[in-house]
Amino acid sequence: MKRLKQIFKYTAVISLAFSTLISCEKEEELLSENEILSFVFDDYKAEGQIDQEEAAIRLYVPEGTDKGKLSPTIEVSPKASVDPASGQENNFKNPAIYSVSAENGALNLYTVYVEEVKNNIYSFGFPSLEIQGEIKDDNTIYFILPYGTDRSELVPEISYGENAVISPESGVAQDFSEPVVYTVTAANGDVNTYSVVVDWEEGSSENTLSSLSIPELFADAEIKSNELVISLPHGIDESEYFDLNHLKVEVEYSDLATLDIDPDDFDLLQTKEINVTAQTGEVQTYKLSVNIEAQNPDAVRGVWVTNVASNALVSEKMIDEMVNRVDDLGFNTIYVVTYNKFMTLHPSEVLKNFYAEGQAHYGDDWRGGALPTQFYGETEDNGFDPLQIVIDKAHAKGLKVVAWFEYGFAYRYGAVNTKPYTEGGDWVYNFKPDWFSMDKDGDVAHKNSFYWFNGYKPEVQKFINDLIVEVVEKYDVDGIQGDDRLPAQPNTAGHDPYTKALYKEETGRDVPNEEQESNFTQWRSDKMTDYAVSLHDAVKAADPNCLVMFSPSVYTFSKVNYMQDWPEWINAGVVDHISPQCYRYEEYGLSAYTYLVGQQMEYMGTLKKEQFSPGILIAAGSYIPTDKYLADCIKFNRSKGLEGEVHFYYEALASKSKVFHALYPKRANFPL
């Protein structure tokens, strides 16, 4: 038994010793390796470059990658562990530290650097062409340049990744007639390749010339097939204001085509053809013809000169300036205001006698004042006679002078004070109350603020005739003119006792209250026609060579509103020349004017075209038309065979000198 215990004891000792030996062997086998063997961003196929000596790892990810949220796959030494763990998201915007623990607990710290691969081209342009290329997903950089652009030596400006190298270099000229390959090598050696393609737009074969105009001459070419015809007025080639060998022209032609002329220095007289070359090279030739009228036209080209809003007649100096300007601008006729506001431009015995009768009538109560034989401060006492001065200066330059009796049967602009004379009433009204027209309410007839004498009364007709004949006999005027107030009466008139009785006597009817009742309108219009005949006869009796001219409102407005049935005046043979007032503001468009002229020409009757000159409005208050509108009106007249027009009024001439120099380069022959 004792021996068995001893054996057991020995066995236990041996077992303990063996166990201790085994335990020591295990401690000696613990691994000390603590290296990172691979570090990969699988999503970007980015494998880290590991420097074991420096314990540094570098990885390159595509440019633009969010480095704040990357999850690496990490392989480490056997039995080692890594922190942060493989697959765990980490922020690599700054260098990241990874610790690797060996089996035996030994630590190894790695610094991980993540950089973006910057081998992209960000922009590619040609500064000289002010164009940037389109960078496509397949690394093609695409340009479309205007057809024909020289691509053989273009200098690109390129922006690309930091620290990268590009070849060919930015700023170096290349021939881009064919695609050019650019390589961008990043700092890590990664290469990115781009193909730069520079194409042309599709070339245009259009080579059409659609218009040619010469603004300073207000001339537009007429295009017939491949012929350009420019028609110009007689005398333009002799004008001191234009050099036809050096003009500026405006040409409209096909986009992308070119011309073989210099629009800023165009020789109108020497150029015989104009070539239009398409972008693709096709040439179209236009033959150019310039037709300058061979004969000077026969026409009345006139201007109204008034004393309203104008100083043209206030002194001999101003009259001289006015006549010189009218002459310089190619006009041949001055229509000078001779009577308005119950005053004359000249010393008038007729008006003086009327004043004398008024003074005698009122005696000591007379307050009519001095005889207003002039419109201005100078009087006949110092020999100032504006009408005579106008005639002398105009005739010296070969200009015609027409005495324009502006107010005609109208007494004044503005209301007539019909109170008794002793209470401050109008002296003419109180002296000759039966001379005044009357409306249906018993007031002085008026329309558009003009208050009227009764043009149906023989005494009134005689007074106006005497004023006109006096001028014809005393002054060497070439003609007299009535306008929209002579012969005329407003449609509101005709309700005075004399006219009502005369209408009843001749028609058996009472005067109607309706202003435009047809029978009464026709009767009143016939009376104005009768007066036109008597005026014509009186003027011709005084001077057979004195022209009887009229400028009425446009028909039929003239008849309905002012009893001016002027086509009947023409039929009666008492019109030497007529200028219907075709006044239309530019804001209504050229068509408003052209329609009116065409319409009025239908009433010319037996008149020749040289006896018909439309009136054109070139000034009214602050209104003055543009040069183009005025020129277009005149050119329309020419297209209708009308060589003349009369312009209202003088004060706008200076501002329209370019138009008149171009379209009236030489004074037209006065035809009458």
UniProtKB/TrEMBL annotation:
Pfam families: DUF5018 (PF16410), GHL10 (PF02638). PROSITE patterns: PROKAR_LIPOPROTEIN. InterPro entries: Divisome_Glycosyl_Hydrolase, DUF5018, GH, GHL10. The keyword Lipoprotein applies. The keyword Lipoprotein applies. It comes from the Bacteria. Residues 117-196 form the DUF5018 domain. Residues 300-585 form the Glycosyl hydrolase-like domain. Keywords: Lipoprotein, Signal. This is Uncharacterized lipoprotein YddW (UPF0748 family). The lineage of its organism: Bacteria, Pseudomonadati, Bacteroidota, Cytophagia, Cytophagales.
